[in-house]
Amino acid sequence: MKLIFLSLSLAILLLTACHQQKIINITRTEDSIAKKLLQGIWLDDESESVQFRIKGDTIYHLNVSYVPLYFKVINDTLIIYGTNDSTFYRIDKQSENEFWFHSLSDEVIKLHKSENELDSLAFNNNSSQDLPAYDQVIKKDSVIMYGGKRYRGYVYINPSKMKVTKTTYTETGMSVENIYYDNIIHICIYEGRKCLYAKDFTKKDFEELIPADFLKQAILSNMDFAKIDVAGFIYQATLCIPEEASCYNIDITISHDGKLSLKNSVYP
Questions:
Q1: CATH class of the domain at 31-123
Q2: Could you tell me which of 174, 180, 166, 167 has the C-alpha nearest to residue 52?
Q3: Which CATH superfamily is domain 138-264 in?
Q4: Whole-number Å distance between alpha carbons of 268 and 266
Q5: What is the rounded distance in angstroms from the CA atom of residue 201 to the CA atom of residue 105?
Q6: Which of 40, 176, 190, 203 would suit a FRET pair with 33, their CA atoms being 20 to 30 Å apart?
Q7: What pTM value is reported for the model?
Q8: What is the pLDDT of residues 175-186, one digit of tens each?
């Protein structure tokens, strides 16, 4: 009798678990009707300014530096999928011509769909969101005297195709992403024609000294010769988040026998 009771209990638990799993799957299903209603260009109710355009499953912004982002609507929530994170906006009201949602600061953003065909012309030049390519190499040359010897130090700041994503927010509190290109910086030190040291640096070389969240959005922007002393040749690397004042300065010490060490700078 106990065996039958246990079997029935197990069966009920399994059925309940399956039912709950079905509910979870159902609640995670995308709302295709809501997505269809979002198609078009949306304007701010108060300013009548264009906020964004939705086409298919992608959100486009007027600013050409903003990357188009994929989105879904699930359970009355607009979910925007960024490169590193997703942001969630609770939908307050939605119809064919109205779209109200809560910003990240819980402000209700009220939009209406554009009926002016001319508004679409603003997006003609940025639908592809082509990113510019940079190929200019910056070269820095330093003559270094120490212990009666003459050295020559070179720094080459080389643009690369490595993309760095920076998340910002529009006036309506919607997350957008900017794309920048990182640099690879080459250091080499010579005594006469003899190469004492040579290395390519990327921002990954400094990951033990810089918080991961900062490093993810930062660019290895500069490198300068600082000084030479008994410890060796000291260069200073600068890593900054684009268009912000936030930077880290890292001392790169190359000892006289060619060994590398890194530490956070203690001087400007």
A1: mainly beta
A2: 174
A3: Protein of unknown function DUF4738 (2.40.128.510)
A4: 7
A5: 39
A6: 176
A7: 0.68
A8: 888 888 999 999
